[in-house]
Amino acid sequence: MAARKASGTLVLLVRHGTTPTTGRLLPGRAPGLHLAEEGVRQAVQVAERLAGLGLDAVYTSPLERAQETAAPTAAAAGRPAIEEPGLLECDTGEWTGEKLVTLARRKEWRELHTSPATFRFPGGESLAELEARVVGVLDRLRTAHPSGVVACFSHADPIRMALAFALGAPLETFSRVVVGTGSVSAIRLAAGAPPSVLVVNSWQGPLGDLRTER
User: What is the DSSP secondary-structure string of the chain?
Assistant: First the structure.
């Protein structure tokens, strides 16, 4: 059967590239964190992978590491990288900048993973609030681009929330999804229909087939 253009809004969720603190610190919203050399390479690779999808828009978290990851894709697509505050990293409050090995020893860290529906970062955002704003972004994108393709450059936890929403999974399961640096996930949104998850944590290969259904 011949392929045809799929209906609805194709949303590509891209985690920013690797930074000097990846896997060591919890950066949160701290300013001034830029891509490492590997992250720059990943940003270029993402642009190559998204080529041919005919992007209608490129959105990015306001943080530098997301903007730098989005830049090659925006340039290749001939689209401006639009700052979308709803794609911002979770506000990790007093934990911002802490070592992950130190946080992992805290009782509250276990609560983050075992009881996320009621968890709030000390002095920061709750995961329920993060979920609400991410779902709000997806709703705005579906309305603004009802038959379009958009790329969203964000962070691991907001992307996990978007995927959990699209899967209809409870908040308690969001941390079970792996979202690596420089990875691409994809969901499709359509009015009057449940979301669908097309790709999760994809590292390599072209993604042009996502525009069509067979």
Answer: ---EEPPSEEEEEEEPPP-TTTTTB--TT-TT----HHHHHHHHHHHHHHTTS--SEEEE-SSHHHHHHHHHHHHHHT--EEE-GGGSPP--GGGTT-BHHHHTTSHHHHHHHH-GGG-B-TTS-BHHHHHHHHHHHHHHHHHH-TT-EEEEEE-HHHHHHHHHHHHT--GGGGGGS---TT-EEEEEE-TTS--EEEEEEE-SS--GGGGEE-
